[in-house]
Amino acid sequence: MKVAVVDSGIHAGHSHVGGIAGGVAIVGDDVIDRVGHGTAVAAAIREKAPDAELYAVKIFDRKLATDVITLVRAIHWCAANGIQLINLSLGTTDLDNGPMLQLAVDEALADGTKIVSAYEHEGVRWLPGSLRGVIPVLLDWDCPREECRVDVLENGRQVYRASGYPRPIPGVPPEQNLKGISFAVANVTGCLSSMRMM
After folding, report:
1. 173 pLDDT band (50/70/90 cuts)?
2. Residue 28, by phi and psi: left (phi above 0), alpha (psi -120 to 50) or beta?
3. In terms of residue numbers, what domain contains 111?
């Protein structure tokens, strides 16, 4: 399974990552992670899908912020390069970005590329996770880290629920580690990759 982590890059040499198959810097000069978020996301995926081919698609450099044009470019790169599953542990609440993102999602699906992203968090809908064709994720603190649960919303849409805790770091209490909806998305990507549910 070819999985792209569209994020801050990946520190490929990290022991929880174990290398990457490739990638591209949409932003910056290389795919090295200088923020840590993309590496933690990749580690959560790798834990559940040790045989996945991970690709770093860097859209953040020194801070976790980008624009919709950069995100769309990243999605296009993934689809053009045979990525089967894109992990988007990010999103926007700006509904004006909906049409552009929906077009990118539709084009990716046409090329056989699926996207995993947050559907809603704390009552707020996120894009692109709430768009048609995206595999939507909800944060569920009661879900064990080893599991991903399937649920059906009132509108009939199927969503995945997962823990917001990433892969544990020895000696670091879970409450002091990175955590949240980003890692629920990564945990679902890992589960789908490991089961080859594509």
Report:
1. low
2. left
3. 2-195
CATH number of the domain within which 52 lies = 3.40.50.200
Would you give the DSSP letter of residue 96?
G
Among the listed residues 76, 65, 84, 122, the one whose alpha carbon sits nearest the alpha carbon of residue 101 = 76
Q: Are 146 and 190 in contact (CB under 8 A)?
A: no
* Residue 198 binned pLDDT confidence (cut-offs 50, 70, 90): very low
DSSP H or E stretch at residue 40: helix 37-48
Helix (H, G, I), strand (E, B) or coil at 53: strand
Mention every residue, 6+ apart, whose C-beta is less than 8 A from residue 5: 38, 41, 42, 45, 54, 55, 56, 57, 87, 89
The structural domain count of the chain equals 1
pLDDT digits (tens, 9 = 90+) for 48-97: 999 999 999 999 998 888 999 999 999 999 999 999 999 999 999 999 99
Residue with tokens 């880290």: 145
